[in-house]
Write a structure and sequence with these properties.
The complex is a heterodimer of chains A (about 160) and B (about 200). With about 160 residues, chain A is mainly alpha-helical. Chain A has 4 helices and no strands. With about 200 residues, chain B is mostly helical. Chain B contains 12 helices and no strands. Chain B is elongated. The chains are: A mainly alpha (about 160), B mainly alpha (about 200). Chain B: Mediates electron flow from quinones to the NapAB complex.
Chain lengths: ~160, ~200
């Protein structure tokens, strides 16, 4: 009984292996068989290719429209070298309630001063401390795949459609 | 004077003092003045050369405390690597460039030699434990001299606000040019990582 089982498992593995080999030969790595380009480009992974240059950060200080109301706002300025660690949070030096007058920066959303049960806290809730977990800067990089995202307004309320 | 010298002559040290104050018998005036001048040049030059050797990044990072903590942290920052390759070394920011202040700082640094010999920060844990204290020393020094070491390179007069981000330009106009704040008040932790910033003005 046990021997039969081992045989069946080995046979299954063998079939799967040959199957994958055939698939590779048909599609080719990174070839027409794939629907999305890989991060490292069309070259097969066996060939070493130079890394693409780093993309430039967008630092024009112009606020970006949110794609939906509860999207975390994007960061339109440089954040290179800003501390966001247990010891220090540089973001809060401008965006916390205390410093918005001198910095004229938008204040951290009021939801960030609540714990998860909705109770208001004196300062930033610990679970909201890691700003970059949701708020991110942008670069000039072109998307690897086309984005077919449609704004909700374009579907639901044609009179509010963005032109 | 001769009285004092005569009395001093009784002892051994006293005889040297007496010798020093007696006019030279065999050495010429030219030898003494020119020789003294040359010896002065050699000693003064040697002193300053030694001072300069002790004022290099190579010397600072010859201690593992500096090499494996603060120097490693510096490497990722704009004061080590940037577009144009102009960079700051340790003494550019941490040793005053003015001679008297430099000597004063060098004498203060004898405490650091003590710390090195007795291993006050010879592990990463000890260093992190003392980091707030050490950082506060530097903040206080730069606050007291109006961020002189920053201003040795970054002159407020030469800042082109049009080339700064509007955000930076506004802040410099409101706080730096009015003298309300000095560089270190806002630009803390730009070359090394920060200690726990709880209670530091301007930090949450």
């Amino acid at each position: 009984m046990r021997r039969a089982l081992v045989l069946v498992v080995a046979l299954a593995f063998g079939l799967a292996f040959t199957g994958s080999l055939v698939a590779q030969q048909q599609g080719g790595i990174g070839g027409p068989g794939r629907d999305a380009p890989r991060l490292r480009g069309p070259e097969p992974f066996t060939r070493e290719t130079p890394a693409p240059p780093m993309q430039r950060a967008i630092t024009d200080d112009v606020r970006r429209r949110r794609n939906y109301p509860d999207q975390p706002p994007l960061i339109p300025h440089a954040i290179e070298g800003y501390a966001l660690v247990l010891n220090a949070n540089k973001c809060l030096s401008c965006h916390s309630r205390r410093f918005t007058e001198q910095s004229q920066a938008p204040m951290v959303s009021v939801t960030h001063y609540q714990d998860r049960d909705g109770n208001f806290l004196g300062g930033i809730a610990p679970r909201r401390y890691a700003c970059l977990g949701c708020h991110v800067p942008q670069t000039t990089a072109q998307p690897l795949v086309d984005n077919s995202f449609t704004d909700l307004d374009d579907i639901s309320e044609p009179e509010r459609r963005s032109r | 004077m001769t009285d004092i010298l005569a009395r001093a002559g009784a002892t051994r040290v006293g005889s040297w003092v007496r010798q020093a104050f007696t006019p030279a018998r065999t050495l010429s005036l030219a030898f003494l003045t020119l020789g003294g001048f040359l010896a002065g040049v050699v000693f003064w030059g040697g002193f300053n050369t030694a001072l300069e050797v002790l004022n290099t990044e190579k010397f600072c990072t010859s201690c593992h405390e500096m090499q494996s903590n603060v120097f490693e942290e510096l490497k990722g920052t704009i004061h080590f690597t940037n577009r144009s390759g102009v960079r700051a070394t340790c003494p550019d920011c941490h040793v005053p460039h003015n001679w008297t202040d430099k000597i004063a700082r060098k004498m203060q640094a004898s405490k650091e030699v003590w710390g090195h010999l007795f291993g006050s920060i010879d592990t990463r844990e000890k260093f992190l434990g003392l980091r707030r204290t050490l950082a506060e020393h530097e903040w206080e020094r730069m606050k007291a001299n109006d961020s002189l070491e920053c201003r040795n390179c970054h002159s407020a007069v030469s800042m082109d606000l049009a080339k700064q981000n509007p955000r930076a330009a506004d802040a410099h106009q409101a706080f730096l040019f009015t003298g309300q704040k000095t560089c270190i008040d806002c630009h803390k932790g730009i070359a090394h990582r920060l200690p726990n910033m709880q209670g530091v003005p301007g930090w949450q």
